[in-house]
Design a protein that fits this description.
Distance between the termini: 41 Å
Number of helices: 11
Shape: globular
Radius of gyration: 19 Å
Helix content: 25-40%
Structural class: alpha/beta
Strand content: 15-25%
CATH topology of the largest domain: Rossmann fold
CATH architecture of the largest domain: 3-Layer(aba) Sandwich
Order of helices and strands: EHEHHEHEEHEHEHEHEEHEHH
Number of strands: 11
Largest sheet: 6 strands, parallel
């Protein structure tokens, strides 16, 4: 872990960033800049794309730590890799094995997972305390791990995990089983094969976002479910969500996860208050 990390909140500027690939359409810079405006603070929030900077992930991480960033968000495909660069105080985040928010505090980089808390808020807002039923999770990467632990926390006891890399699906199933021994689990490479008889479907892959056209599960396989969630929020209305709405399913947008994780990350970065209603209105304005 690099030394020299310091709190990038000196003077009037809060310096933040996002490390990830394919993030040109990310609204995270605007969210945090608007949060700063609510508090009379200037926020510089940079998109840090390793290949565009001619660096690998570790070099970008070290740069952010050493050159005045208060913290960074981490997105696809680096959330699992970030775990090895941070101290993690929360055993739940350690079990998730993915970090999307990093706080540079004195000589320590601390890791958090606000995808997890953001998903909980989004799901509770849309479904309240209604049972989740059998759920199909598509994608066992960083955000998939956060969502999986969220599903368990929300009471899911029957979960199917589909990932083209079946070793990742199996590894996630193993840590979930350890956390919740009563959880019924099934894994496989094919979302289609695992979709039979499910109540809910959660997409935790980048399929459907800007630059990754398509849908993680075709419309003809959605009809038997009751609800869907899509972690993708650029665009807000993905093909997956449009197909689900056309089939009469309850739709939970990745935009809700985006808002939730952003609000929680802002609190970690700054400790400053945030009016979420005003933030949403500002984000939706031109």
């Amino acid at each position: 872990m690099p030394h020299g990390c310091w709190q990038g909140m000196m003077d009037d500027v809060i310096r933040l960033g996002l490390i990830g690939d394919n993030i040109a359409a990310s609204q995270s810079p605007r969210l945090h800049e608007l949060a700063g405006l609510q508090n009379g603070r200037r926020v510089h929030y940079d998109r840090l794309v390793p290949r565009e900077l001619g660096m690998d992930f570790d070099a970008v991480f070290d740069h952010a730590c050493q050159f005045g960033y208060r913290g960074v968000n981490v997105t696809y495909p680096y959330k699992e890799r970030a775990v090895g660069r941070v101290a993690i105080d929360d055993p739940l985040v350690a079990a998730i094995g993915a970090v999307n928010t990093v706080l540079f505090d004195a000589d320590v980089a601390r890791g958090f997972n606000t995808d997890h808390t953001g998903f909980l808020a989004a799901c509770r807002k849309a479904r309240g305390d209604r049972p989740l039923g059998r759920v199909l999770l598509i994608g066992a990467g960083g955000v998939g791990r956060a969502i999986a632990f969220g599903l368990v926390r929300l009471g899911c006891r029957d979960l199917a995990i589909a990932d083209s890399d079946t070793a990742k699906a199996d590894a996630l199933a193993a840590v979930l089983q350890q956390a919740e021994p009563t959880l019924a689990l099934e894994t496989g490479a094919s979302a289609i094969a695992l979709s039979k008889g499910v109540t809910g479907i959660a997409n935790a892959t980048p399929v459907g976002m800007v630059g990754y056209d398509g849908t993680p599960l075709a419309r003809q396989y959605l009809g038997g479910a009751e609800w869907v969630f899509d972690a993708v929020y650029t665009p807000v209305e993905t093909r997956f969500l449009k197909d689900a709405a056309a089939e009469g399913l309850t739709v939970i947008s990745g935009y809700e996860l985006f808002i939730g994780q952003g609000v929680d990350a802002w609190g970690l970065f700054t400790g400053l208050p945030l009016d979420e209603v005003a933030l949403r209105q500002a984000l939706q304005s031109v």
